[in-house]
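pasting for ref
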Amino acid sequence: MLSEWLTQNFEGDTTGFRKCYLTFGHDYSFFVRSPKGCLWNNLPASLEKMILNQMKQGGSGPPKMVSLGAGGTWVATWDGKYYLWVLVNHYYDGVHEALKENNNDRSKGINYIAISPYEDTYFIHFNNGMINYNSALNSQPEQELRHIIYRYMQERARADKVTYRLLVGKDQKSVVISPTTSYEKYDSLVEVSSEDLSPQSWMSWLWKKIF
């Protein structure tokens, strides 16, 4: 189903395909959205009902982003500032808190969110540059992940002239990065070069490391 839909809409159109958003979950579940429409399969019933309701006349349309987690959990965003979520059975406490906080301050918005369908791990990147994550990595990959995040956030802090407080890792360690800190000292430990630090490239790198 998915392969046929992608081929029908994007065969030979690599530019259009880059505008697709695609996520997978358990039991052949997926959600894909593009400028040409959206398609999904085997989503949790509560999520499918919400999507169908929002796609009715006068609704917000299909979600901009969907993340499918463990135990029937899910998060959906509309335009990065309107969130709905079902997080049950003790999963993703940090995501719960982050979404509640940002529902109270919609100006922040979510640029990217991923919850793992296999374990209690997640990654959130807010529009204001803030990052919150919990991973199940061993010590060395975890250190690499923190280094690239610190380096990216150091560049954001200086460019935006803003101080950020990150909550990272299982221990939810608080790290303050400001225009005057020097987290670029970790350059030699980062696996990507400075020209690869676009949001798309480093999020792809992070996804591979976390999940």
